[in-house]
Each structure stands twice: as C-alpha cells, then as structure tokens.
Amino acid sequence: LLLLDLFCFGDQTVVAARKESVCQKHQEPLKLFCRDHEAPICVVCEQSQEHRYHDIVPVEEASQEYKDQFCTCMEILRKERNRILAYKDSLVKESQDLLDVFEFSEVKPHSKKKVVQR
C-alpha cells in the first residue's frame, strides 16, 4: 500500500512520511490509483479485466486530491471547534453572571433580616 502521513497547517499540507510499495500480485511499483476501488494499483493491474473500465489516475494526482479533501475537512472542523469553544465561553460567563446575581440576592435579604431583628 501507499502510505501518506499528512498534516495540515492552515493552507499548508506537509507530507511527513511516504512509503511506496509494490503490487503483491505483479511485484510492480504502485504508480496508479483506481478511483473505483479507492486503491493504488500497478500498470499491469490497470490493463487487467478487473480495472479495464475504471477511472485510473496517477497516484500523485489522487494523493493531492485526498490531501485537499483532508485539509478542507480539517478547516471545517477547526472552525466548528472554535465556534463551540466560543459558545462554551459564553455559557461559562452567563453561568458566572447568574451566580453573581444569586450571591448578591442571597446577601441582600440576610442583611435586611439582621437589620429588622436588631
């Protein structure tokens, strides 16, 4: 299999490791990618009956497409995470405000009681 370790940092994608293997069936380098099977294949496999009418592209092209999709998904998740964290912060602030109001109202009636009792 072809293995890529991808890391997205903003608009930049970094390939941390790449391991190129050979086809187990034909011992040829895996230079192509079958989109129908979503798997790397060799040039001999491309000519086989199994892949004859499939959508085949160079492995580098498929790799770039997957990197782009991955980075797009990561950006969506980052934005969603930031939105959730902002919402959480607003809830924490609202909770603290309510606690402050509650504590203030707790202190006020007690002080009135003490004044009335004296």
UniProtKB/TrEMBL annotation:
<feature type="signal peptide">
    <location>
        <begin position="1"/>
        <end position="16"/>
    </location>
</feature>
<keyword id="KW-0862">Zinc</keyword>
<keyword id="KW-0479">Metal-binding</keyword>
<feature type="domain" description="B box-type">
    <location>
        <begin position="18"/>
        <end position="59"/>
    </location>
</feature>
<keyword id="KW-0732">Signal</keyword>
<dbReference type="InterPro" id="IPR050143">
    <property type="entry name" value="TRIM/RBCC"/>
</dbReference>
<keyword id="KW-0863">Zinc-finger</keyword>
<protein>
    <submittedName>
        <fullName>E3 ubiquitin-protein ligase TRIM17-like</fullName>
    </submittedName>
</protein>
<dbReference type="Pfam" id="PF00643">
    <property type="entry name" value="zf-B_box"/>
</dbReference>
<dbReference type="InterPro" id="IPR000315">
    <property type="entry name" value="Znf_B-box"/>
</dbReference>
